[in-house]
Amino acid sequence: MNSDWQSIFQTIINQLDEGIHVVDLEGRTVLYNEAAANHDGMQVGELAGAHILEAFPSLTVDTSTLLHVIETGKTLKDVPQSYVNVHGKWIETVNTTFPLYHEGKMVGAAEIAKDFSKLRRMSEQLIELQDIAKQKRKNKEENSSIKYNFPDIKTIDPYLMKQIQLAKKSALSDSPVFVYGESGVGKELFVQSIHAASLRSQQPFIAQNCASLPESLLDSILFGTSKGSYTGAIDRPGLFEVASGGTLFLDELHAMPLELQAKLLRVLEEKEIRRIGSTKSIPVDVRIIAAMNLDPQMAMEKKQLRPDLFYRLNVFSFYLPPLRKRIKDIHLLTNHFIDHFNDLLKKRIEGLDPHLRMFFEEYPWNGNVRELKHTIEFMMNFVDVGKLSIEDLPPTMIHLSEQHPLPDQSMPSLKDYLVLKEKQFIEKALRKGKGNVSKAASLLSIPRQTLQYKIKKYSIADDNC
């Protein structure tokens, strides 16, 4: 590679967020980018031609992932490495390291490194803050970090109202709870309400999203660490200990690696944990509530959820239906959010015009309650008084309203309105009849042939049949 191309190649790799370090067979640096230099606390020029053990004197032939790959010729994937640079700075990385070949002969090794130090510091600060907060809490609100109670769940949907009544009963138990439903339906609101109504309400409520952290970091956050478990590790409690006496909410459980799910199962069975690097068992008194935005059967089929863990958690199980299946709740929540933002933004919005009301009923609301709230917030930032209309929708939604063109008059025709209501009523009957056309026809008191004709006429989706 001539000097011009080498300069161009160096410019390209300097734009990457991950560290790149390439050494020859002697362990001397051939290529080193700025991202690597940043988290190694070095300058790119300091590594030019330098041996890896000179730049990072705490490493040895045995502990250096690059030298290990040169020695064995085998790839290492996602291996943690802790070391000190020549300036005395402590560094932690997670490395994927592989041999480099040219014309069938090994010529060196390359490493892609992610800075683990920052993530670990953040996790330790999080646990410190939670531990401090636990000591300072003196009343229910401080102890539980709870924002929501059952009255905060706004619904007139019969199914969801029944779920709430069952959840109130489950609050009196210490058994695990499993909640699932699409993103944005209000799972954390539901879970917090269970904790607030429980005998643990004056104890900690700790929430952890399992998808937000890599496996090794999630492991240490949940179970804590013991001094000496890794270089620089100190004795630190994990969330199971911090939440002891209260509730630990594990969101997006399907994102937790299966090996870690096995450890969670043991905690549920034995009611004790062992910190990483320790052989000492510590008893914990914590109620586990888990949530997912996937159907648990589908998650088990995809090997994202251990069946034994699911059956252990599934003592109390709650499914929260999407907003599109709760048409009446759309109007209830719309009015609730309008009142909320009228107070917050000092507006005088009176509601929706008829055309926008119909659009809201037919819109799929894939983001559920969260999407509805943010849609109304968007519109009310631009409208001060009167009723919201189609023209006030966010740009991403306006094109969908073209299937409901505005008529000259201020409301839809009676014919269009009745057609819409008939279609919705048929869909409801089909859902109640679990897709059986004969049962739905009986519920509607019409001949089966008539119902089949209307299903075809209105192009009612197969998932209702």
From TrEMBL:
Classification via InterPro entries: AAA+_ATPase, AAA_lid_NorR, Homeodomain-like_sf, HTH_Fis, P-loop_NTPase, PAS, PAS-like_dom_sf, PAS_4
Pfam families for the chain: AAA_lid_14, HTH_8, PAS_4, Sigma54_activat
MF terms in GO: ATP binding; sequence-specific DNA binding
Occurrences of domain Sigma-54 factor interaction (ranges): 153-381
Organism domain of life: Bacteria
Annotated ranges, domain PAS: 5-53
GO biological process: regulation of DNA-templated transcription
Record's keyword annotation contains NADP: no
Keywords linked to the UniProt accession: ATP-binding, Nucleotide-binding, Transcription, Transcription regulation
NCBIfam families given in the database record: sensory_box (TIGR00229)
PANTHER family cross-referenced by the UniProt entry: TRANSCRIPTIONAL ACTIVATOR ROCR, TRANSCRIPTIONAL REGULATORY PROTEIN
Protein name: PAS domain S-box protein
Organism: Falsibacillus albus
